[in-house]
Amino acid sequence: MDSKKILLIEDDISLQNLIDDYLKDYKYECTIFSSPKSALEDFSKNCSEYSLVILDLGLPEMDGFDLLKRLKDIQDIPVIISTARDDLGNKIYGFELGADDYLSKPYEPRELVLRIDAVLKRYVNESTYSVGEFKIDKSTNQIYLNSDEIEFTKIESEIFKLFLSSPNKIISREVIVNQTSLKDDTKNRTVDMHVSNIRFKIGDDSKEPRYIKSVWGIGYKFINDDN
Question: How many Å apart are CA 63 and CA 57, to the nearest integer?
Answer without folding.
Answer: 6
